[in-house]
Amino acid sequence: MTSLPRPATELSADDARRIALRAQGFLGAPDRKSGVRGVLRHLGAVQLDTISVLARSHELIPYARLGAVGRDTVEAAYWTQTHAFEYWSHAACILPVEEWPHFAFRRRAYRSRPHWHHDLPDGAYDQVIKQLRAEGPLTATELGGAKNKGEWWDWSESKIAVERALMYGEVVCTERRSWKRVYDLAERAIPDALLHDDLGDAECLRRLVRLAGEALGVGTRADIADYHRLKGEQFDAVVADSGLVPVTVQGWSKPAWADPKALESAPRGRHRTTLLSPFDSLIWERARTERIFGFTHRLEAYVPKPKRIHGYFAMPLLAGGRLLGRVDPAREGSTLVARQVSLDTPKAVEPMAQALVEAASWVGCDSVRVERVDRPELTAPLTAAVRKRI
Description:
The chain is α+β, with helices and mostly antiparallel strands. Helix content is 36%, strand content 18%. It has 14 helices and 15 strands. Strand 6 and strand 7 (180-185) form a beta hairpin. The longest helix is centred in the middle third of the chain and has 16 residues, at 201-216. It is globular, with a radius of gyration of 22 Å. 45% of the residues are buried.
């Protein structure tokens, strides 16, 4: 790819792939000066998940783009000095605090139609607000207990109340402590300049569509709407005013839109070689991943073990701007164990070895053990390449 027409309305599949990589922070020099907070602002949403293998997914996201940034540094970047909050976006996500006004449409929708139908006794909601006001940030346990004695979904009254207050926007999740949400009043946690629901629904949607388009670089209606879990008709209502421009992409069967800034120059620079969380926004939408990279990936953590193909938490390998394989990792003491490795080509051996050793060092492991490779003839070369780097 040498140059793009201005305005670029027709893109090759390779153009689209490179634009997407650059937009997501995988092509070109990483912005180390802005660090983790810069990654969060650039992506607009970092998905949270309970699974922790090498690290939790929200830690893997900046690692994949910046390299071995300290894990304590990652947490501090998200949760100190009111830089972020947790809310429902693509899923449960860490969001830049500047995006608080953009989710007014969702808070209003929850207020008019609660997301679930737990019974809540009179006074329970007000009691939670009163307690937070008096005592400051608290977990659900500190508010009176997260669960009753039944199954995991059998929330206590205080947990139901505080989660409802979170959805309404009266309460904010300001951090995770031992993976528990820490709740505080929005009036304390959100800067005054941002603490409002002044934006109408259409303006919220317009801004979120624009931001999603910028984060993706180029995408279809489904790609862009899915970024913050908008409905297709919500996208349709605002895309003409979003600032995104219509494009066609060779090989894509549906219309697409692009960030006009992404079309101003050809994406160039160094590609990251790294392992990706399955919840990374580069690949979290399966149809888009297949369309852009020709790579089919499915999280198998919730698939019965005998039916898994690639493993519990298989992490795709990104190298040279392409997805070349995957590994299901684990940790045993100070050893990173590659329980199952899938390589699409022998050329993936060296990048996989590099990615494994770098990831091991980042999480404090001093050795790597390769257990199984889907192409047995590549086991010895991969093991040798790993040893060379340890």
